[in-house]
Structure formats: C-alpha cells, structure tokens
C-alpha cells in the first residue's frame, strides 16, 4: 500500500503542535503494549513534553484515543468533500457506504500495529469495549452522513450501531490482509453490508441495499479493481 510522504511543512507543523506529537507518541506506545499499560508519564516521555503540557492537551489516555478516532473521521470526511458531492451521487446507497468504509481503512492503514493492540484490549475488557463502542457509533454516524445516509432519530442510531458492528468485523480481516488490493477485506465488507441490511432492519434504510445489486463504485488507488465476489456456499 503506497503512502504519501509528508512534506517539510507538515513536519514543521507537527513539531510546533504538541497535540500532534502527543498523539504520535501515544499511538507508538499502543503499537508496543496494551492500552491498559500506557501511563500518562509514558506518553509525556515518548512525546517529549512535560506532564503540564500533556494535561493542557488531553485529559486521559482514553481522551487521546477518542481524539485519534475524531482525526480519522475528519480525514475521511475531508477526502469525500474534496471529490465533491457529485462523485458518487448516482451510486446506490450500498456502494456509497462501501466507498466510505474503504476510505476509512485507507486512513487507518499506517496504524495497523496500534489497532491490533487495541483489539486485544477490547477482547479482554468488556467495560473498555463498551466505552469504545460509544466512540465507534458516534464515528459511524459521521461515516453514514458522508455516504448521504440519514442519521436522524432512532433509525439513524440503529444504522450507526449497525455500521459500527460491520466496521469492527471488517477491521479484523483488514488487519490480517496483506494483499495490496485488499481483496479479502472488500469481500468481507460486501458480505457484512449484505448481512446487516437483512438483520431485522439493523441498518434501517441503508434501504436499497437489499435490491440495488449494482457494481461497486470504482475507487482510486490503492483500491481500484473489480468488484469483490462473495465466496460460494460450502
């Protein structure tokens, strides 16, 4: 997977931004150890800031994690906006959601080690899993909005929870998928979206998904390629 190198201006901005350095330090630590073993002093040391500077920027390590999730949301939304509303306006809802989730995985790709560590903590600690689910649902609301799916009211909340579950399942495959084209990841995403739409309205009016049957939208590299096919039944 090709990553765009940062510019000198980006590096300078990060050097002047303690929040950015702190987040980088936190994610580096998360790639090395479990979330519950990361202390505030550890983050301050890794980021090269004082505890006073750390406290001015973040309230806790969970706050850092929440900020990382919001930053991922922002980058996905900015990417969608850069292409304009017309880019996928004529595509079925299922294709729009598919595109947004793949964009999100593109943003997450540099942080696979940290995400693997995070998933291990989620499996060990149900209370942490519940807290993180709230963040995931809030994030999913923004992803649905980017896909032009209504997020209002109880139906919107159900759709967001459904998409959060879909993304969690897809993430596990994504973290094991070493194929640059992410064929396995796209296949699982396609299947999970199909399952979600059938699960007693779990995704609500991701409506036309059950009948749209349309092609997956063509994507820019690194995900360009033919539509994923669901594996044949055993």
From TrEMBL:
Q: Which residues bind DNA?
A: 39-58
Protein's UniProt keywords contain Endoplasmic reticulum: no
| Database matches in InterPro entries | Homeodomain-like_sf (IPR009057), HTH_TetR (IPR001647)
User: Where does the HTH tetR-type domain lie?
Assistant: 16-76
* Single GO term (MF): DNA binding
The entry's keywords: DNA-binding
In the UniProt record, the signal sequence range is none
Output this protein's name. Answer: TetR/AcrR family transcriptional regulator
Q: Which organism is it from?
A: Ancylobacter pratisalsi
Q: Mind giving the lineage of the organism this protein is from?
A: Bacteria, Pseudomonadati, Pseudomonadota, Alphaproteobacteria, Hyphomicrobiales
């Amino acid at each position: 997977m090709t990553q765009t190198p940062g510019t000198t201006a980006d590096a300078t901005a990060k050097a002047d931004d303690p929040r950015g350095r702190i987040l980088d330090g936190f994610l580096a630590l998360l790639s090395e150890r479990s979330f519950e073993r990361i202390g505030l002093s550890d983050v301050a040391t890794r980021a090269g800031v004082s505890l006073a500077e750390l406290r001015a920027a973040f309230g806790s390590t969970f706050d850092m994690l929440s900020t990382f999730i919001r930053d991922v949301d922002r980058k996905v939304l900015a990417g969608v906006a850069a292409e304009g509303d017309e880019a996928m306006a004529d595509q079925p809802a299922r294709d729009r959601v598919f595109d947004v989730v793949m964009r999100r995985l593109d943003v997450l790709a540099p942080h696979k080690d940290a995400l693997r560590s995070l998933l291990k903590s989620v499996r060990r600690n149900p209370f942490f899993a519940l807290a993180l689910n709230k963040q995931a649902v809030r994030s999913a609301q923004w992803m649905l909005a980017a896909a032009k799916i209504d997020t209002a009211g109880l139906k919107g909340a159900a759709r967001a929870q459904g998409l959060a579950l879909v993304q969690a399942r897809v993430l596990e495959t994504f973290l094991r998928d070493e194929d640059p084209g992410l064929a396995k990841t796209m296949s699982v995403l396609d299947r999970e979206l199909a399952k979600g739409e059938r699960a007693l309205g779990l995704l609500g009016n991701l409506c036309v998904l059950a009948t749209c049957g349309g092609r997956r939208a063509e994507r820019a590299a690194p995900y360009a390629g033919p539509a994923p096919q669901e594996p044949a039944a055993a």
